[in-house]
Amino acid sequence: MLQQRTLKTLTRAVGVGLHSGQRVELTLRPAQPDTGIVFRRIDLPEPVDIPVTAMAVNDTRLASTINVGSAKVHTIEHLMSACAGLGIDNLYVDITAEEVPILDGSSSSFVFLLQSAGIELQRAPRRFIRLLRPVEVREGDGPAAKWARLEPYHGYKLAFEIDFDHPAVDSTGQRVEFDLGAGNYSRDIARARTFGFTRDVEMMRANGLALGGGLDNAIVMDDYKVLNVGGLRYDDEFVKHKILDAIGDLYCVGKPLLAAYSAFRSGHAMNNKLLRALLAAEDSYEIVTFQDEKQAPRGFAQVARAW
């Protein structure tokens, strides 16, 4: 049986929020089968649990934010991406502020934290959302068009294309495809950092965003070039970060997907819109388990054995 997974023990990190600039402590704790991933705001007078679901995402300006009532957690996508990449089904995330720490701007630090705690197989079948027919969302026309799509696929693969009119981005790969069964998330995707432009910083900070951003946790570009001394971690780091974000955004559906995702100029808002369209079309998917891991798509059983 392909089993659900959680952590063997708890692990902690301290950092600052990318947009809030606030110091935040994060504790990742094991959770029982069928818990899902639950953020817990332990800094509030009464701790509040915020389960991650597509419908809990209430703000997608430059990040994915979830809430229960007035309790919020911003910028969950990098941690969610690491959980998806390593196959973590059940997890409590205790947090002392309203934003997940940005750490180095990628998901690699979260991968390290999860791996250092160890992965525990649980006595419950892992449940997948398997696409039965395509689901697509689109916005805009002509040069302003953007879209995202899910299609049936026995596995999980993602293809993303970006379109930035900037010399530093134009000189790199602007389309990438990643298949979880054939690739290695930690090696191929996790180290891709978020990125931004100096010309946007003043506007963003005036709106209370990017207050914790800098060269140590993002790729920063002026009008012509990358300003980070070490340059890029991947030749196509920009579009790979978009794949990283999409993996995290899509994992907010609450279960791993068996689907092919493709997108052009998509972002957090469109990714969440795609999940909502999927869930609204009940004939477009089914929930499946694999009693025999040999029937599971390539890659999923391999991750289970690795732990």
Give the key terms.
5-stranded mixed β-sheet, alpha+beta, globular, 7-stranded mixed β-sheet, 19 strands, 307 residues
Quick gist of this model?
With 307 residues, the protein is α+β, with helices and mostly antiparallel strands.
Decide which structural class fits the backbone: alpha+beta
Low-pLDDT residue spans: none
- The tally of helices reads 8
Head-to-tail CA distance between termini: 15 Å
Major sheet details: 7 strands, mixed
So what's the overall shape? Answer: globular
Helix content: 10-25%
Strand content: 25-35%
- Encode the helix/strand succession as letters: EEEEEEEEHEHEEEEEHEHEHEHEHEH
Nearest-angstrom radius of gyration? 18 Å
Could you explain how this protein is built, in words?
- The protein is of the alpha+beta class and 307 residues long.
- Helix content is 23%, strand content 31%.
- It has eight helices and 19 strands.
- Strands 11, 12, 13, 14, 15, 18 and 19 form a seven-stranded mixed sheet that branches. A five-stranded mixed sheet has the order 2-3-9-4-5, with helices on one face. Strands 6-7-8 form a three-stranded antiparallel sheet, with no helix packed on it.
- It starts with a strand and ends with a helix.
- The mean pLDDT is 93.
